[in-house]
């Protein structure tokens, strides 16, 4: 897990992320989380892309195994369940709001972008819109920061501590 300022990363890391996503990874500023084997699981992207576009999603889940496992969760009623949990649990709401603030503080390290001020990711601070984004935040920040992301990871049939990576180089797109 890693938060800004990120450790240096390599061209191989970016090539792996591109292969994982099936498109060229752009404006990468760090690898925010990795599989136990070292392969990226969460890529960090600049808050303003090179073409000027504001980009709120600092932490993006790029690992196909993780993405599939979270998609499987989203296909169940789990987002409704977490939304109900938030409605019922003031402490959880407070921790989710703190996760939102923590996400924005991380991104601010990389620069202020007025167009996305106060906008984080995944539905924070009040809604549960994308478990991929919330779980990616949890993978980057570590346990105890994003309570909904933590719940999703705990339930997902995937873990960064058990490698299910494929040889991404065999599927590297022309970039
Ligand atoms: Zn792996």
From TrEMBL:
Q: Record's Pfam families?
A: DUF501 (PF04417)
Q: Which InterPro entries match?
A: DUF501 (IPR007511)
Its domain of life reads Bacteria
Q: Which PANTHER family match?
A: CONSERVED PROTEIN, DUF501 DOMAIN-CONTAINING PROTEIN
Query: What is the designated name of this protein?
Result: DUF501 domain-containing protein
Q: Which species does this protein come from?
A: Glaciibacter psychrotolerans
